[in-house]
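Quick one:
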Amino acid sequence: MIYKFKSKAAGDVIMMGPTGDKVLGLIGKDVTPKGIIEPAQMPAAIQALADAVKADDEARAASEKPDEGQAASAGRDAISLRQRAWPLVEMLKRAHAADQPVTWGV
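Output:
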């Protein structure tokens, strides 16, 4: 499934299924074809994504030890959670400031 997040406060954000599923799970939303993030839920969602990004960054740093070489990083996703989640985090910040919901699948 492809997720297309929409808000009147920002441009659309498109995520492929696995990433969208993961992000929705991180912010406590059910993985469904349609949904909404209300402005009141956005600060918690932004914080949850920030916490997950920090944990992912730390895990990446720990796995990239010089003695492990390319074998360790070969199985790792080249694109970090920070890069994948950033557009949605920015959308959530703008939508919250404008008191607008973020929806997908509608």
